[in-house]
Design a protein that fits this description.
It catalyses: [protein]-L-isoaspartate + S-adenosyl-L-methionine = [protein]-L-isoaspartate alpha-methyl ester + S-adenosyl-L-homocysteine. The chain is 29% helix and 25% strand. The chain is α/β, with parallel strands linked by helices and 213 residues long. The strands form two sheets. A seven-stranded mixed sheet has the order 5-4-3-6-7-8-9. A two-stranded antiparallel ribbon has the order 1-2.
């Protein structure tokens, strides 16, 4: 579990890549420059850790491409103290970015193997979410609602109504919607029943699955 000068240098190159791809949010760039992404991957793949690409992890899931993590994080416009719901804890890398941005993070993972691994791993490297649960992301976390931001890190065939209803007025939901290819979609809650929708091009995610296994 070492983070060396070499790793730090590779991270700065990754940050430059993200700037060149259009990421502007200084907080997001700083978080990506700080978080040791190689620790979230199996040791045999360290060389891949700071390339701007997704990579397989346990339970047939992936650690998202850094650009995707940065893009979604930037869309959320997180401010310190914001209450954020994350659907799909996965490796915990996106969780760490949200925590670096000062969010109070509530995260749901439906793959038991990943949930067990990540809930032990994150505190070990100093990242403590408010709540990490094993559950169905389609249902959200009604007991903790409302949230200023909700981020979905898997491809959803449709937008789950519980997530829209758990958004605070003025809150932002970032969700990739679609089957094979997803359109990155932002919903801003303007009133009890009023939502503003924005679309930001195509991305590819592992599917968001209903019910737990």
């Amino acid at each position: 579990m070492k983070d060396t000068f070499k790793h730090q240098g590779m991270r700065q190159q990754l940050v430059e890549t993200l700037i060149n791809k259009g990421i502007k949010d200084k907080g997001v760039l700083k978080a990506i420059g700080k978080i040791p992404r190689h620790l979230f991957m199996d040791s045999g793949f360290i060389d891949h850790a700071y390339q701007d690409k997704a990579f397989p992890i346990a339970a047939d899931q992936t650690i998202s491409q850094p650009y995707t993590v940065a893009f979604q994080s930037e869309l959320l416009q997180i401010e310190p103290g914001h209450k954020v719901l994350e659907i799909g804890t996965g490796s915990g890398y996106q969780t760490a970015v949200l925590l670096e941005l000062g969010a109070r993070v509530y995260s749901i993972e439906r793959q038991q193997e990943l949930f067990k691994k990540t809930s032990k791993f994150l505190p070990k490297i100093g990242y403590r979410a408010k709540s990490l649960i094993f559950g169905d992301g389609y249902k959200g976390m009604p007991v903790e609602a409302p949230f200023q931001s909700i981020i979905v890190t898997a491809g959803a065939p449709y937008v789950p109504n519980p997530l829209l209803s758990q958004l605070a007025i003025g809150g932002r939901l970032v969700i990739p919607v679609g089957d094979d290819v997803q359109v990155m979609t932002l919903f801003i809650r303007k009133g009890p029943k009023e939502f503003e929708k924005h679309e930001f091009g195509d991305f590819r995610f592992v599917p968001m699955l209903e019910d737990k296994n």
